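re: the backbone from monday

yeah here it is again, tokenized this time
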């Protein structure tokens, strides 16, 4: 729903969308022993948050 800007009369959209991301979280293992969380779905959720957007990340551990 657009919100009206009283100064210029332009419509501005309020960002209220919740992004739902399904997928895996992986550990990237580096030769120096560092382990960093990764995987494309996790990276999308991470960067959405860095941009100030809300996301719901859904994953699971192990099993079939």
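seq for it, each position gets an aa:
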């Amino acid at each position: 729903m657009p919100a009206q800007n009283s100064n210029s009369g332009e419509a501005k959209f309020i960002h209220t969308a919740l992004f739902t991301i399904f997928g895996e979280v992986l550990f990237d293992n580096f030769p120096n022993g560092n382990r960093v969380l990764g995987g494309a779905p996790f990276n999308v959720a991470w960067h959405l948050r860095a941009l100030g957007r809300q996301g719901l990340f859904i994953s699971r551990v192990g099993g079939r």
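Helices lie at 40-50. The chain has a mean pLDDT of 80.
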